[in-house]
Amino acid sequence: METLTVALGERSYPIHIGAGLLDRPELLRPHLRGEQVMVVTNETVGPLYLERLLAGLQGLRADRVILPDGEQYKTLDTMDRIYTALLEGHHDRGTTLIALGGGVVGDMTGFAAATYLRGVDFVQVPTTLLAQVDSSVGGKTGVNHPLGKNMIGAFHQPRCVLIDTDTLGTLEDRQYSAGLAEVIKYGLIDDPAFFDWLEANMDRLLEREPEALAHAIRRSCEDKARIVAADETERSGHRALLNLGHTFGHAIETGTGYGNWLHGEAVGCGMVMAADLSRRMGWLKPADVDRVHALVTRARLPTRPPPGLPTERFMELMAVDKKVLGGRLRLVLLQDIGRAVLTDAFDPALLRETIDAFASP
Ligand code: NAD
Ligand code: GLY
Fold first, then answer.
1. Per-residue pLDDT tens for 280-322?
2. How many CA atoms lie within 13 A of 124 on its CB side?
3. Phi, psi of 63 (to 5 degrees)
């Protein structure tokens, strides 16, 4: 097992990474301050892992809430189920919420923890690759709105992240590839050596070779923890770099209806589109755009948006984004592999050219 720290002063917390950690309750228990816990999971993950988690929580009053599965349920309506379960179970400010599942469960559990009784503790037990390398770390919580992805939420840091890499054994290939998109993202943002490593080791990752997988998860969490520690609430804009590919991707997710394209798929395609625009800006070399395209393709991710999103609609959807400031859209683009920047200094005509080049009628 390895332990990393997200360094945020008095809100610092550990990320434990290893095989079989669901059976190591001693890692979780120091972070459960009261006598009560509420495990939040969904109808797919619950039957797989809930009993094992609960077995380690003996002696506590442990309740559970099982949510429907899917991005389309990441809504304020579904949040109500969590609040109702907490109120029915008389959970007080000493309670801890435990998110057992992927990013959807994690984001909603964190948001419930941020808002229930004006804020209670929560811990993350992520079970998808995407959640293990990204969404469980950093304290971004929230839900979608029909008009925009993740537009309602709060920053609320977990007390601990427990990553049991064995849980990936039951994850479908398509979901696994979606997680690889966020892994590739770290290489592109500011870790070119990791990008090189991914090019050399993508086949091992696709085989889910434990050593390669452990390295990719650890390195991703290190990269994310460093960026979050530098700009926890995205004030300086540094943390916004973690949104590489996301403005394009969110347009795809919202435009196609939540749940049709997986978040990671949309991000993979979005990174290819961001690379294309970066080349049109004269920043990224054509050969590097090819490298981005090739690695995303090797990770078995789509590189073109689905049909039915014409350029006008795509641009309209991109305009609903948390990075919009003073009415101006800001995008994360690449000056090089491993050098991402947040900028509003892109030429809208070039953005249109990129979308035209990728969009199918
Ligand atoms: P998800 O939570 O929908 O999980 C994907 C699917 O895998 C679901 O059907 C789930 O039930 C299933 N599943 C989960 N663990 C499993 C396991 N071990 N075995 C078998 N099936 C399993 O999707 P995701 O990709 O984990 O997360 C995507 C969400 O995360 C999006 O809503 C996205 O916006 C959010 N996100 C948040 C952040 C953040 O910083 N908070 C970062 C990235 C993404
Ligand atoms: N996934 C974006 C962030 O955590 O900031």
1. 999 999 999 999 999 999 999 999 999 989 999 999 999 887 7
2. 36
3. -105, 170
Rounded Cα gap, residues 177 and 163, in angstroms? 18
Task: Choose which residue among 22, 42, 44 to substitute to test ligand 1 binding: the one with the highest number of ligand atoms within 8 A of its C-beta.
Answer: 44
Question: Is 224 noted as a catalytic residue in this protein?
Answer: yes
The position carrying tokens 């979606």 is: 178
Ligand positioned closest to the Cα atom of 134: 1
15-42 tens-digit pLDDT: 999 999 999 999 999 999 999 999 999 9
Ligand 1, residue 43: give the atom nearest the CA.
11
Can you give the residue ranges of every domain in the chain?
2-170, 173-358
Active site residue 182: yes
Q: Tell me: domain 2-170, CATH 3.40.50.1970, correct? A: yes
103 lines ligand 1 (CB under 6 A): yes
In the DSSP assignment, the letter for residue 326 is T
pTM of the model: 0.97
CATH number of the structural domain 173-358:
1.20.1090.10
Distance 320 CA to ligand 1 centre (A): 22
Catalytic residue among 156, 224, 280, 330: 224
